[in-house]
Write a structure and sequence with these properties.
The protein contains 31 helices and four strands. The chain is mostly helical. It is found in: Membrane.
Length: 777
């Protein structure tokens, strides 16, 4: 019995341990599962938080690096200081820019100069003014003279005022350019009231378009407006306490160093050594070769080997290359190389297209068949219309080959822009259209802007309808002066409404604005041939109102980034625009009435500074598209008729790019191909030269590819600050040089002041064409 008892006890003990072991195993497994579930839950929470951070932050890396994701809604904005300094800055800038634009060497002073100058002025006012409340109109309107320290939001509003003194077209309202052409070139007698209405309506109508498109071009995070990041970076450098430093240099100190360096350096290309603007060494190597100088001249040729050591020359036509995304620079470079270094040489030397050998390879002048400058007075009637018998007797109008091909690229650029936006952004635009009245997922900046009252839509509608009404009044009351009938005005408004959105999308994402001024003038030239003044007015209302709308939208995005209340932005923009428009016209009117023979290069002394080269281009355009008309130049049988096919080519070019991007989504680089921006590489030539564009491309590549890729921390901290410093220093020295030296007729004359040593670059190459100073073949 004993063995059984022992066996039974052992069995019982083993069974008990087995159950205990099983319970422990089950408990361990349960604990392990609980730990796994806890870890999974934790990871899911981390992922959700990361997704939330990603969703709330900007999806654009450059914006996330530069724009602060914070706001202080208690900051005063529309203070007495802001109004006083803002209106003063606007008035000073528009006066200077209007004054400079008539000179042989025009210069545009940007708002960055005032952005820097008003900072010490604002801080002085905050220290000197009393903390006192002022009552006006029986106490119904009150404000405090000194509500506290000068803050960044006041600074932004002042800069918005100042920007109204800088037209997107280059320093003055484009409508004043049209008025200058009408008075100085066509010798028209105009009413000041008529001109004032033209100036104000062409700018204020842009607010109407801007107000309609805020939901599409300001609110979406993808519409990031790259140029605004330079402004944001500068504001932060001027106002934020910079604790962390790289190599011991704060952003403010960095700005002051390069501002001073830029200011001092510009004395060389601006006065002492102007040859640095375009360093055309090829012409020195082959001083007697027409072909070599046509290839190498920075001013009158293809600019091969030439480079600009002048920041004003680099940023003259495409703006600062430091604020343009690398993908846009790459697209522009592709189009520029294909156009300037392949297409133009083949057309000029191989094909002799458009009888090119009779004329310089690059010029903005108009020519007759014998290679001489075209005399428009011989084909103009006293009513400023085309004298057809005189035109048939005098002969056809000719263009330089690069000028003609640049016009053709404008045809392709217009249709390519519409197709590109429809294919690549059409779905998003449609989604935004449907969701405009409902809830849309916003980034952090949109969420913070909801703390402020939005501008009612009817404010913009009043500006839009009022501008349209007074524009139509002009067409009835001053119909003989403007030549544009009421239906032409409505046609111009319809065209502007059609193209503002796609143009805005391109600029908001690429920092480039493919213009369509050629298209506007082309269309009305067919509808109203032989009427150059009508052509000018149609261009103003059909294209320039779009330019102003895009400029206003860009300012709204700057206010969006800096958390400026929308109603404050609207007030600053409207008041600044009215002030700038009035001063702009008054200064231009004074100069046109008091400076004898202004803009008339035949009657002016050889050393006169008032030759108006900028407005000469405007006049030439009115002759091409208005006086002679596109039917004679680009119609059936016209010398440039084949260029019209580029309308169709431009519409088709974006299609294969879109198709490949849909078929091969894994190839991300395809989506960066932007055909309209490629075609923008041809834009502005002339008056822009290939050297302007090539120098811009090289500089932009250096900073926005190599520095951004290999020194991202430096780029994040200093890139936009450097851009602002170069702009401000160059502009300030330009002002000093003019008033201290050039205006006093203190001029240097030596080898380095001869801006281009390529005297043969403007010569024709066809046998039998005789031009003074050129060899005859």
């Amino acid at each position: 019995m004993k063995p059984i008892s022992v066996f039974s006890s052992a069995t019982a003990f083993t069974h008990k341990n087995s159950r205990l072991y099983a319970r422990r195993l089950i408990a361990g497994a349960a604990k392990l599962n609980r730990n796994r579930r806890t870890e999974q839950t934790r990871m899911e929470n981390v992922s959700e938080k990361q997704e939330e951070r990603d969703r709330r932050s900007s999806p654009v890396e450059e914006v996330a690096l530069v724009v602060p994701e914070s706001d202080d809604p208690t900051m005063p904005v529309m203070t007495f200081r802001a109004w006083f300094l803002g209106i003063t800055s606007c008035a000073v800038l528009i006066f200077l820019n209007t004054f400079f634009t008539y000179r042989t060497q025009p210069m545009m002073i940007s708002e960055i100069l005032m952005q820097i100058a008003v900072l010490p002025a604002g801080r002085f006012m905050s220290a000197a003014l009393p903390n006192k409340e002022v009552k006006l109109f029986g106490g119904r309107w009150r404000f405090n003279l000194n509500p506290g320290p000068f803050n960044v939001k006041e600074h932004v509003i002042i800069t918005i005022f100042a920007s109204c003194g800088v037209s997107p077209g280059g320093g003055d309202a484009y409508s004043v350019g049209a008025i200058t052409v009408m008075k100085a070139y066509y010798k028209q007698s105009l009413s000041f009231l008529c001109c004032l209405i033209i100036v104000l309506t062409t700018q204020l109508i842009g607010y109407g378009w801007a107000g309609m498109l805020r939901k599409y071009l300001v609110d979406p995070a993808e519409m990031w407006w790259p140029a605004n990041l330079a402004q944001v970076s500068l504001f932060r450098a001027l106002h934020e306490k910079d604790k962390g430093k790289i190599n011991g240099v704060s952003r403010m100190k960095f700005f002051l160093i390069f501002f001073t360096a830029s200011f001092l350096y510009y004395a060389l290309p601006g006065y002492l050594f102007p040859i640095l603007t375009f360093f055309s060494w090829v012409c020195w190597v082959w001083p007697d070769s027409i072909t070599a100088q046509q290839i190498g001249s920075g001013y009158h040729g293809l600019g091969v080997g030439a480079f600009s050591f002048d920041w004003a020359g680099i940023s003259a036509y495409h703006g600062s290359p430091l604020v343009t995304p690398w993908t846009s620079i790459l697209n522009i470079a592709a189009g520029f190389v294909a156009f300037v270094y392949i297409i133009v040489p083949i057309c000029y030397w191989k094909l002799n297209a458009f009888e090119a050998g009779r004329f310089p390879i690059f010029s903005n002048q108009l020519f007759s068949a014998d290679g001489r400058k075209y005399d428009t007075t011989k084909v103009l009637t006293p009513q400023y219309e085309l004298n057809v018998p005189a035109y048939n007797s005098y002969g056809k109008l000719y263009l330089s080959p690069l000028f003609a091909l640049s016009i053709g690229s404008g045809f392709a650029r217009f249709t390519a822009t519409l197709t590109h936006v429809a294919l690549f952004h059409g779905r998003d635009i449609w989604r935004r259209s449907k969701a405009a009245a409902g809830a849309v997922e916003d980034d952090i900046h949109c969420k913070m802007m909801k703390n402020y009252k939005e501008v009612p839509q009817w404010w913009f509608l009043i500006l839009l309808c009022g501008s349209i009404f007074f524009s139509l009044v002009i067409s009835f009351v001053y119909k003989n002066e403007v030549q544009l009938p009421w239906w032409g005005m409505l046609f111009a408004f319809s065209l502007a409404w059609l193209v503002t959105l796609p143009m805005g999308v391109i600029q908001a994402t690429t920092n480039q604005r493919p213009g369509y001024d050629i298209i506007a003038q082309f269309i009305i030239g067919y509808v109203l041939p032989g009427k150059p003044i009508a052509n000018l007015l149609f261009k103003i209302y059909g294209r320039i109102s779009t330019v102003h709308a895009i400029s206003f939208l860009s300012d709204l995005k700057l206010g969006h980034y800096m958390k400026i209340p929308p109603r404050c932005m609207c007030a600053a923009q409207v008041v600044g625009t009215v002030v700038a428009g009035v001063i702009n016209l008054v200064v231009a009117w004074w100069m046109l009435e008091t400076i004898e023979n202004i803009c008339d290069t035949e009657a002016l002394p050889s050393d006169s500074p008032w030759t108006c080269p900028k407005y000469r281009v405007t006049f030439d355009a009115s002759v091409i598209w208005g006086l002679i008309g596109p039917g004679r130049l680009f119609g059936s049988g016209g010398l440039y008729g084949h260029l019209v096919w580029l309308f169709l080519a431009g519409a088709l070019l974006p299609v294969p790019v879109w198709f490949i991007s849909r078929m091969c989504p894994e190839r991300n680089w395809i989506r960066y191909i932007n055909v309209p921006v490629m075609l923008f590489g041809f834009a502005g030539m002339p008056p822009a030269t290939p050297t302007n564009v090539a120098s811009w491309l090289v500089t932009g590549t250096a900073f926005n590819y190599f520095v951004f890729r290999h020194r991202k921390q430096w780029w994040q901290r200093y890139n936009y600050v450097l851009s602002a410093a170069l702009d401000a220093g160059t502009a300030l020295m330009g002002v000093v040089i003019f008033f201290a030296l050039q205006n006093m007729k203190i001029r240097l004359r030596w080898w380095g002041t001869e801006v281009d040593h390529c005297r043969l670059a403007t010569c024709p190459t066809e046998p039998g064409i005789v031009i003074a100073g050129c060899p005859t073949f």
